[in-house]
Automatic annotation (TrEMBL), chains A, B:
InterPro entries: Aminotransferase_I/II_large, HTH_trans_reg/aminotransferase, PyrdxlP-dep_Trfase, PyrdxlP-dep_Trfase_major, Tscrpt_reg_HTH_GntR, WH-like_DNA-bd_sf, WH_DNA-bd_sf
Pfam families in UniProt: Aminotran_1_2, GntR
Gene3D superfamilies: Type I PLP-dependent aspartate aminotransferase-like (Major domain), Winged helix-like DNA-binding domain superfamily/Winged helix DNA-binding domain
Record family assignment: In the C-terminal section; belongs to the class-I pyridoxal-phosphate-dependent aminotransferase family.
Domain HTH gntR-type stretches: 16-84
Name of the protein: PLP-dependent aminotransferase family protein
The organism of origin for this protein: Profundibacter amoris
UniProt keywords, alphabetically: Aminotransferase, DNA-binding, Pyridoxal phosphate, Transcription, Transcription regulation, Transferase
Length: 487, 487
């Protein structure tokens, strides 16, 4: 059956160009066997008329298809499917799916499911008042410069960094930048062999837990705190100690005895955003040394310090090698980047390197190289500076709008940050509130998943201003306040 | 101290353009505090003269720096470091590193290091006769089309797929292509919720082991076989059964009792490249059902079938849900891509999804989208077709050159493949041979790491023709043969 122009339909939701849409229709028809060798394609004129697009678009698509040998042009008589087109014979597939005979409740030996997580709305951009945390704002991310760096990393002479198997290694340009520029700003001195690139901070935290913990070990963490940590610890089988935080973060004297590791966010506590004062940090390190436990520091959002300079990382005070530092580019650039890093003593990094090799080999070299360029050319710092200015404004507007409501700011970073931790009146379950607000165009993040245990507070929520413009903040907060009144 | 033109040096090893090199020198001088607000930059004319480059290159670099607010142009008098340039105050760093007080032999609770791995030469491209396995050949990879797809995935309207946090989700375009195009060619029918994208096949194999195995479970694998599997299994603490393979792959009647999982490469055994015949596959599935074990199928290099069509995957014969299928784009496209996928029953994929979320969240959306375009536009199949033609020629040349030597082809895929598994005379330790050959410009991969146990054969090696041109193969093999004679 020849491919007549009537079988072409443009998909309004197609993400690419018109030209690539036409390429894709033809190539997949050939690959799927719907179009056979020797069959004729509609002329570029006819197809262009049928689709109401320019003829040159069709011609360019056909040229690309010729280059890949899907089609051939015969002298003056048009385009035909090439006799040597890439075609794979399809094996026979049985038409129905069978019912498993495997008893999965027995086959699955470790249950990784069932953790409390924050429910996110994936189509959040369609909401007018998205107080969404940790999603990039297209108005603030410098996509044009990122694109230039990405194109540079796609160049001919970058073939190796794009395509090669790095195995246990990393892109030397990125490691070099982290060692020479990023870490010194956090007060940290590290050699390249003390740094390992990871698939985001999540991967770094997870590896640290895998190396340090098992059923015979105990770990403490902040409560409320990042819910992902509880899942990571649960998977190791270790004993878990949630420690209640106060308005200065985790109180060292509340730490239990017999601890092997502490997971902590000193610079910007998740989710309350408070910063741990210097004397607590010193006390924490003293205790760690005395009681012989290790500290995994998630150095979280320190870039967003627009009210005062960020305090140096806990790791910068560490003289014993007790602090394992977790950094991330995914948070400040964009979460889809999936690039973070671990900094620690060599015996630890050596283990992390071996675990990374066995579990995923390495984060894509191309993402590492693009990031190295973006950092090296100064775009990163320029972008952070812009974001700081915008966030400062948004923070002010948010604080003002909250002032005359039933809501109480339960946590705010003294140095800046990207949102507030908010307490609603006790009668309010913010998970219920979240659903009601979503129907009214407002997105908030319910706070219960940040608390350990079943009987934990339900009236907190995270109100981030990182993805909503200053102009929309007052009306968004008015709607939240209204919904709380009507609760 | 102003930045005078004399402090600019072009680095001949710099990977980017001249323009970006100049941007980088200025931006990092400002970020590092070597250049302060208000200080003057050399004029574009002077700097261009000093470096012997075109003035427009310098001007363009300066414009980019102005856009990021690193520098400002003052009317007619030149460029100055901006008063509001991104600058981060550096905390004081102690000048020396301390000696750890941590006893790492006690702190490390799980030892991930120490596995046998294949040593690779990272600068392999500088060797004239690289019989390297699994590294991309720049002459065969269609980088121009990849670049176009990557640029498309960087477009304005692709902002979400580039930047968003997918959490436990994947790019729907890639999942769709795998379900509708890739799997049907392997005879497999799967719904999107039965597919999970992974950071390469390594990550897929590792997750399967984490879910199915622990200290109370037993797993079998091929011997010789992929060395990474032994490491993955060792980390789970399970009982390990290596099973000797013959010239038809793994013999089902050699499988021990009490097995919970089998890891296998039926389509193209690693490293011998043999294909398992259909009757063995059926017997394997019958046994799996009778004895209630699961099979993890690494469907390895099936694309390189140029002598006859590939046999359908083992998974295509599976009526019980016993086969967990591992596919990869990293092998056929390029290893640095780090994209693979798992296909299995929903209760299994649900666990894998939760484990992936906790251990790394998701593979970068941008790599997923770029791959989806490359596949969807038909470039992938076109490239595979080209590779098949070239590999067929190289295979023939390799076989001819080996015929008159002391070497014996111990394994070759009946359908094609990218290399041979070669047996040298028993007196030869191929790890020693490898070192001698490297001094003579030839790279081979010693075979011992593929065997389980300490007392395993040392006279095998892998001879891949995927990264060496046909013209160079005969001389390369002559040198190997010579080195064996002189051994």
């Amino acid at each position: 059956m020849p491919l007549v122009e009537d079988t072409f339909f443009l998909d309004p939701n197609f993400q690419g160009t018109l030209q690539s849409q036409i390429q894709q229709i033809v190539a997949s028809a050939i690959l799927a066997g719907r179009l056979q060798a020797g069959e004729k394609l509609p002329s570029s004129r006819k197809l262009a008329e049928h689709l109401g697009i320019s003829r040159i678009t069709v011609t360019l698509a056909y040229h690309e298809l010729v280059a890949d040998d899907y089609i051939k042009s015969a002298n003056r008589s048009g385009y035909y499917v090439s006799e040597t087109a890439p075609m794979v014979p399809l094996p026979a597939i049985k038409g129905e799916m069978h019912k498993d005979t495997v008893d999965w409740t027995k086959a699955v030996q470790r249950d990784f499911t069932g953790g409390k997580t924050v429910k996110k709305n994936y189509n959040w951009r369609s909401y007018p008042y998205p107080f969404m945390y940790g999603q990039p704002d297209p108005d603030l991310f410098n996509q044009a410069s990122w694109r230039l760096c990405a194109m540079q990393a796609l160049g001919k002479k970058e073939f190796d960094s794009l395509t090669s198997d790095y195995a246990e290694q990393d892109d030397p340009e990125l490691i070099n930048f982290i060692a020479r520029h990023t870490l010194p700003r956090r007060g940290i001195l590290a050699r390249p062999e003390q740094i390992l690139v990871t698939v985001g901070a999540q991967n770094a935290l997870w590896m640290a837990a895998q190396i340090l913990l098992n059923e015979r070990r105990a770990a403490a963490y902040e409560n409320p705190g990042y819910h992902g940590i509880r899942e990571i610890l649960r998977h190791t089988g270790c004993t878990q100690f949630p420690v209640e935080i106060d308005d200065q973060g985790l109180p060292p004297d509340m730490l239990p005895d017999g601890l092997n590791a502490l997971f902590i966010t000193p610079s910007h506590q998740c989710p309350t955003t408070t910063t741990m004062p210097m004397d607590r940090r010193r006390e924490l390190l003293r205790l760690a040394n005395e009681r012989n436990f290790l500290i995994v520091e998630d150095d979280y959002e320190f870039e967003m310090s627009f009210l005062k300079p960020p305090s140096p990382a806990l790791k910068s005070l560490d003289e014993d090698g007790r602090v394992i530092y977790v950094g991330s580019f995914s948070k400040s650039l964009f979460p889809g980047l999936r690039l973070g890093y671990l900094v620690g003593s060599e015996p630890f990094i050596e283990q992390a390197r071996a675990l990374r090799l066995a579990s995923l080999r390495h984060p894509p070299g191309y993402m590492q190289r693009t990031t190295a360029y973006f950092l090296g050319l100064g775009h990163y710092d320029a972008m952070i500076k812009r974001m700081r200015g915008v966030y400062q404004k948004r923070r002010q507007v948010t604080a003002q709008a909250l002032a005359n409501t039933e809501m109480k700011v339960a946590g705010r970073a003294s140095f800046g940050g990207s949102g507030f931790w908010v307490e609603a009146p006790e009668r309010v379950d913010t998970e219920v509130l979240r659903h009601r607000l979503a129907d009214n165009g407002v997105l908030i993040e319910a706070g219960n998943p940040f608390f350990a245990g079943e009987d934990s507070p339900r009236n907190f929520f995270r109100l981030a201003y990182s993805s909503i413009s200053s102009e929309r903040i007052p009306e968004g907060i008015r709607r939240i306040s209204q919904a709380i009144k009507e609760y």
